[in-house]
TrEMBL record, chain A:
Subunit and interaction comment: Heterodimer of HisH and HisF.
Pathway the protein acts in: Amino-acid biosynthesis; L-histidine biosynthesis; L-histidine from 5-phospho-alpha-D-ribose 1-diphosphate: step 5/9
Active site: D12, D131
SUPFAM superfamilies registered for this protein in UniProt: Ribulose-phoshate binding barrel (SSF51366)
Gene3D superfamilies, per the entry: Aldolase class I
Family matches, as HAMAP family: HisF (MF_01013)
Gene Ontology annotations for the cellular component aspect, listed alphabetically: cytoplasm
Organism per entry: Devosia sediminis
Matching NCBIfam families: hisF
GO biological process: L-histidine biosynthetic process
Role according to the record: IGPS catalyzes the conversion of PRFAR and glutamine to IGP, AICAR and glutamate. The HisF subunit catalyzes the cyclization activity that produces IGP and AICAR from PRFAR using the ammonia provided by the HisH subunit.
Family: Belongs to the HisA/HisF family.
Protein name: Imidazole glycerol phosphate synthase subunit HisF
Automatic annotation (TrEMBL), chain B:
The protein, known as: Imidazole glycerol phosphate synthase subunit HisH
Organism: Devosia sediminis
Keyword Phosphoprotein: no
Entry keyword set: Amino-acid biosynthesis, Cytoplasm, Glutamine amidotransferase, Histidine biosynthesis, Hydrolase, Lyase
CDD domains: GATase1_IGP_Synthase (cd01748)
């Protein structure tokens, strides 16, 4: 087996600009997502994810332009998530140069949307975002549900839907990959929710991307070895230059994980 | 100077494919012309033809059939005319005799064989086979010239759940390893196909496209 574990930097974009800030050394304009994408491309990132967190409808169109400009310069796979609700949204993103789309709220409100999208564009380009949070009423081993429920609308809206069950159902409908984010860990730098990642990764056939909570390079290793993830996604540790992509790859490779070295 | 027609039949990441070809063309500095087109007249005049493809086999085949005259024209230009041809991902799988994705669908039949679901020997391996993997030549081919292959070679970006099993061993050009050998490249005469995405495979992909633009089979 020589398929490599992927490292995926994630850029939050609003109105065509990177938000949350990016602090690379050589960027002229740290707010330009295309410039940031090119820096990651040059550093050997395995894929790139744009998360469009634009709230207004008017701002939405800028993401197409960002994707189009990125695809002109970066010959690597690009995923776009955030606000993907219709077949037409997907078509426009793919035509702009995206390779995959990540779908969250629309997958919960209309699971058949995933089936229609997968039939139309192929399973390989449909990523379902599973934003999960530990249930307050979780009785560990005490009921039939897992410990986590899913949230929509950028983690603001609880649904009462079981995360592990939801993940399996999305794969049945045609999701080709799952982006599993722990809402509890997101932004905390305390590491992935490994139990959550593993519970989902072990119950589905498709690859799982671990997300939410990376603070150290060991967290990335743990996501793979203990979380059973096929790819690891991180934002701030790379944006702020805490670690570079080559450092992360070298660290993971030293610990026995097959990586694509630049 | 060469002209390339990238066939638009409603399937695939056309923009990405065109971007990668345009980048290589600019670096060659020979005023190559890259056109994304569904127009048979443009395809008829092109020096090279590229068939992309993303999605399910049956949908892609139906999309190609829906472009009036396109399949006959491809037959005329590629099979009888010897025009250099590159198929990518499902655009490569369509060269097979038949696809067995969900339903059995007749393919173009240029590379005898069937497109079958991958079945890694290790049950723990995920499907789709998604990500970066190395390739192993089954035989020499000029489109792989200058590309480091083997375990420590360059990586190609794959994303697929099915692969083309060729009937003729000589049509298999390269494999990749994912719980057993999977078809990575096929080729015969002026026809070449890659399961991976050259337009998403950084150095390896750009080199392969450069080789294709200069290919004189």
């Amino acid at each position: 087996m020589s398929l490599k574990t992927r490292i995926i930097p994630c850029l939050d974009v609003a109105g065509g600009r990177v938000v949350k800030g990016v602090n690379f050394v050589d960027l002229v304009d740290a707010g330009d997502p295309v410039e940031a994408a090119m820096a990651y491309d040059a550093a050997g990132a395995d894929e790139l994810t744009f998360l469009d967190i634009t709230a207004s409808h008017e701002g939405r169109d800028t993401i197409f332009e960002v994707v189009a400009r990125t695809a002109e310069h970066c010959f690597m796979p690009v995923t776009v998530g955030g606000g993907v609700r219709s077949i037409d949204d997907i078509r426009k993103l793919l035509l702009a140069g995206a390779d995959k789309v990540a779908i969250n709220s629309a997958a919960v409100s209309d699971p058949d949307f995933i089936a229609r999208a997968a039939d139309k564009f192929g399973n390989q380009c449909i990523v379902v975002s599973v934003d999960a949070k530990q249930r307050l009423d979780a009785k560990v081993g005490g009921d039939n549900r897992s410990e986590w429920e899913i949230y929509t609308h950028g983690g603001r809206k609880p649904t009462g839907i079981d995360a592990v069950e939801f993940a399996a159902r999305m794969v049945e409908r045609g999701a080709g990959e799952l982006l599993v984010t722990s809402m509890d860990r997101d932004g905390t730098k305390s590491g992935f929710d490994l139990k959550l990642t593993r519970a989902i990764a072990d119950s589905v056939e498709v690859p799982v991307i671990a997300s939410g909570g990376v603070g150290t390079l060991q967290d990335l290793v743990d996501g793979v070895t203990e979380g059973h993830a096929s790819a690891v996604l991180a934002a701030s540790i790379f944006h702020f230059g805490t670690f570079t992509i080559p450092q992360a790859k070298a660290y993971m490779a030293e610990r026995g994980i097959a990586m694509r070295m630049a | 100077m060469t002209t390339v027609a990238i066939i638009d039949y409603g399937a695939g990441n056309l923009r990405s494919a065109a971007n990668a070809f345009e980048r290589v063309a600019a670096e060659r500095g020979q005023s190559d012309v890259i056109t994304v087109t569904a127009d048979p007249d443009v395809v008829r005049k092109a020096d090279r033809i590229m068939l992309p493809g993303v999605g399910a086999f049956a949908d892609c085949m139906a999309g190609l059939e829906a472009v009036p005259g396109m399949i006959d024209l491809l037959d005329e230009r590629v099979i009888r005319g010897g025009t250099p041809f590159l198929g990518v991902c499902v655009g490569m799988q369509l060269l097979a005799s038949e696809g067995r994705e969900k339903v059995v669908t007749k393919g173009l039949g240029w590379i005898p064989g069937a497109v079958e679901k991958i079945a890694p020997s290790d049950r723990g391996l995920k499907i789709p086979h998604m990500g970066w993997n190395t390739i192993f030549p089954a035989r020499p081919h000029v489109l792989l010239d200058g590309i480091e292959t083997g375990e420590n070679g360059l990586h190609a970006y794959f994303v697929h759940s099915y692969h083309l099993k060729t009937d003729n061993p000589s049509d298999l050009v390269a494999t990749t390893n994912y719980g057993g050998a999977l078809t990575a490249c096929v080729g015969r005469d002026n026809i070449f196909g890659t399961q991976f995405h050259p337009e998403k495979s950084q150095a390896l992909g750009l080199k392969l496209i450069e080789n294709f633009l200069g290919w004189a089979p």
